[in-house]
Amino acid sequence: MPNKETLSEEIIVIQDIEELRSKAGRLYHKVFTDKGDFTCFEDEVVAILKTYYDEKITVEIATNDRGFKNIRRYISSIPNVKMGETKQTFKVPEVHIGDPKTQTMYTSYAKDIFIALVAHRMDALTDKDYDELMHQAITQVIRAKEAFK
Asked: Are 88 and 81 in contact (CB under 8 A)?
């Protein structure tokens, strides 16, 4: 009889990630969170999760009829909002590039990353979501630029 799975989105805070091997020898990860323990078999997802220790993130969870909970994909990070704060604003990092050709190149990189991030999201996006994704895209370009200095 096939295992039936239910998909849901959950907001979690990652506390730790442990690499394990199944009895069959397959590598997987146990993800310890504020909502309990989950497994994750996708290496790309684990790599993303490792960058969000102690931060609120939204993930897609697959729960099967035997009660196993598996993180299937990372959806988004959730900015810390203080109680009573009604609007979250993102400060776009300043990029000082003297040469207009170089600035155009970095803008193009940020646009490409932004498009990939938007395409990765399967849900409806709000203006706040777009702001957050653009912020993430620009931040990744800045990190890459710094890494190659």
From this structure: yes
Number of domains, the chain: 2
Q: In tens digits, what is the pLDDT along the chain, a chain of 149 residues?
A: 566 888 888 889 999 999 999 899 899 999 999 999 999 998 888 988 998 888 888 899 999 888 899 999 988 887 654 444 444 454 544 555 555 566 667 677 777 777 777 776 656 777 777 778 788 887 777 777 776 65
- Nearest CA to 145 out of 98, 92, 97, 77 is that of 97
**Are 68 and 22 contained in the same domain?**
yes
The SS3 of residue 97 is coil
With contact defined as beta carbons under 8 Å apart, do 9 and 61 qualify? Answer: yes
Question: Are residues 105 and 70 both part of a single domain?
Answer: no
Residues 114, 127: Cα–Cα separation, whole Å: 14
Indicate yes or no: pTM above 0.85.
no
68: CATH = 2.40.50.140
Domain boundaries, position 110: 100-147
